[in-house]
C-alpha cells in the first residue's frame, strides 16, 4: 500500500488525532499551561509518574490475562502471548475508531487469523466486553452512591452527565447480553434493522444480507453455549477486570502525586476517573477525542487547579497515545508470529 492510499484510507482518524493533539497543545501554549508544565517538570516526582506508567502496563496485562482465561477454556493450547496481542489490538483499534467500535471486530478477525473459529472468537470477545461493561457500571453505581454529595456540590450538571453515562452503558450491556442469550429475539431484531435499512435505501439486498448475518449468528450462539456457566471460569475473569479498572482509575491519582500534590483523597480521584471513563465511552470520535479531555477537565479541574492542562496531556499520553503506539507494535508482532504459527482448529 502506497503512502497516499494509507493516508486516504485513514484520513478521518488522522484528522481527529491531529485536532485532539492540536487543541491540547493550543491551550498549553496560549494559556499558562506551558509555563505551569515547565514548573512542574523541574519539580516532578518521577517515582509517582513511573507508578502511573506501570499501572497502564498492568492494565494491558490484565486485559491479556482475562482474555486468556476465556480463550484457554475453549482452546487449551492457546497461549498468553496470543491473548496479550489480541488485547493490545483491541486497545489500538478502539483508540482509532468512532465509539471505540473497531476494537472488538479486529480482535475477532485477529483471533481467526491465529486459528480460532470465528463463532468462538466472537463469543469470547462478547463475554469479555460484557464483563467489562457490567463491572464498570457496577463500579460507577457504588461510587455514585458513595461520593454523590461531593460531586453534586462540586461538578456542575453532575447528575445529568452521570445519568447519561449510566444509561448508555446499561443499554450496551443489555444489547450484548441479548445477543448472547436469546437467539430468537436477536434474529428478529437483526431482521427488523435490515428491513428498516432497506426501506430507507441503505440496504439493497435485504434477504441476502439477512441470510449472511443469520448464519454468523448461528455460529456465534452455538459457540456461546460452549462457554457454559462455569463459576470457576467467570469469577477470575470478573476479579481481573475489577483489578484492571482499579489500576486504570489510579493513573490520574499517580499523576496528581507526581505534581507534588497530596490533599485530594485517593478514593475521590478514583471515583472521578471512573465517571470520566463511563461518560466518555460513547463519544463518537476515535479515542473519545474531545470528550475524554473535556470530562477529565470537568472532574479533575478542582484537584489540579492551574496544572489541569499538563495533567490532561500526561494522562492522554499514558492512557491513549501509548495504546496506539504499543498497540501497533503488538499488532505487528501478532501478525508476524501468531498468525504465521496459527494453532490447528480444535
Task: Give an overview of the whole structure.
The chain contains 14 helices and no strands. The longest helix has 37 residues, at 118-154. It is an all-alpha fold and 346 residues long. Helix 11 (231-258) packs across helix 14 (308-339). Helix content is 82%, strand content 0%. The model has no long low-confidence stretch (mean pLDDT 79). It has one domain (11-339). It has helices at residues 3-9, 11-30, 33-43, 46-74, 80-96, 103-113, 118-154, 158-181, 183-199, 206-227, 231-258, 266-280, 291-304, 308-339. The protein is globular. It starts with a helix and ends in a 7-residue tail after the last helix.
Q: Report the β-strand fraction as a percent range.
A: under 5%
Shape: globular
Uncertain regions spanning at least 5 consecutive residues: none
Largest sheet: none
What structural category do the secondary elements indicate?
A: mainly alpha
Order of helices and strands: HHHHHHHHHHHHHH
Q: Give the % helix.
A: over 70%
* Number of DSSP-assigned strands: 0
How big is the Rg? Answer: 21 Å
The average pLDDT score comes to 79
Number of helices: 14
What's the end-to-end separation, in Å? 34 Å
Number of domain modules:
1
Give the helices and strands, then pairings.
Layout: H1 3-9, H2 11-30, H3 33-43, H4 46-74, H5 80-96, H6 103-113, H7 118-154, H8 158-181, H9 183-199, H10 206-227, H11 231-258, H12 266-280, H13 291-304, H14 308-339
Helix pairs in contact: 2-3, 2-14, 4-5, 4-7, 4-11, 5-6, 5-14, 6-7, 7-8, 7-10, 7-11, 7-12, 8-12, 9-10, 11-12, 11-14, 12-13, 13-14
Amino acid at each position: 500500500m502506497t503512502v497516499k492510499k494509507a493516508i486516504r484510507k485513514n484520513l478521518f482518524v488522522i484528522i481527529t488525532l491531529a485536532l485532539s493533539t492540536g487543541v491540547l497543545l493550543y491551550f498549553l501554549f496560549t494559556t499558562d499551561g506551558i509555563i505551569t508544565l515547565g514548573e512542574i517538570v523541574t519539580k516532578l516526582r518521577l517515582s509517582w509518574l513511573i507508578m502511573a506508567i506501570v499501572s497502564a502496563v498492568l492494565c494491558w496485562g490484565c486485559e491479556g490475562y482475562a482474555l486468556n482465561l476465556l480463550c484457554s477454556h475453549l482452546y487449551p493450547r492457546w497461549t498468553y502471548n496470543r491473548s496479550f496481542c489480541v488485547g493490545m489490538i483491541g486497545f489500538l483499534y478502539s483508540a482509532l475508531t468512532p465509539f471505540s467500535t473497531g476494537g472488538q471486530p479486529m480482535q475477532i478477525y485477529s483471533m481467526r487469523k491465529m486459528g480460532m473459529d470465528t463463532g468462538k472468537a466472537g463469543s469470547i470477545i462478547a463475554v469479555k466486553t460484557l464483563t467489562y461493561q457490567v463491572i464498570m457500571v457496577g463500579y460507577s453505581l457504588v461510587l455514585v452512591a458513595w461520593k454523590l454529595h461531593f460531586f453534586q456540590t462540586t461538578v456542575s450538571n453532575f447528575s445529568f452527565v452521570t445519568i447519561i453515562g449510566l444509561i448508555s452503558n446499561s443499554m450496551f450491556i443489555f444489547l450484548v447480553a441479548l445477543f448472547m442469550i436469546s437467539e430468537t429475539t436477536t434474529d428478529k431484531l437483526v431482521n427488523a434493522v435490515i428491513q428498516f435499512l432497506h426501506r430507507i435505501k441503505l440496504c439493497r439486498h435485504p434477504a441476502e444480507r439477512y441470510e449472511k448475518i443469520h448464519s454468523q449468528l448461528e455460529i456465534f450462539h452455538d459457540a456461546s453455549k460452549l462457554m457454559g456457566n462455569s463459576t470457576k471460569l467467570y469469577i477470575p475473569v470478573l476479579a481481573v477486570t475489577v483489578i484492571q479498572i482499579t489500576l486504570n482509575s489510579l493513573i490520574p491519582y499517580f499523576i496528581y502525586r507526581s505534581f507534588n500534590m497530596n490533599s485530594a483523597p485517593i478514593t475521590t480521584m478514583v471515583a472521578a476517573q471512573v465517571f470520566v471513563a463511563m461518560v466518555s465511552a460513547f463519544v463518537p470520535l476515535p479515542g473519545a477525542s474531545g470528550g475524554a479531555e473535556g470530562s477529565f477537565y470537568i472532574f479533575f479541574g478542582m484537584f489540579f487547579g492551574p496544572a489541569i492542562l499538563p495533567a490532561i496531556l500526561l494522562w492522554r499520553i499514558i492512557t491513549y497515545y501509548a495504546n496506539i503506539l504499543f498497540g501497533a507494535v503488538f499488532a505487528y508482532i501478532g501478525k508476524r508470529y501468531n498468525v504465521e504459527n496459527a494453532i490447528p482448529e480444535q
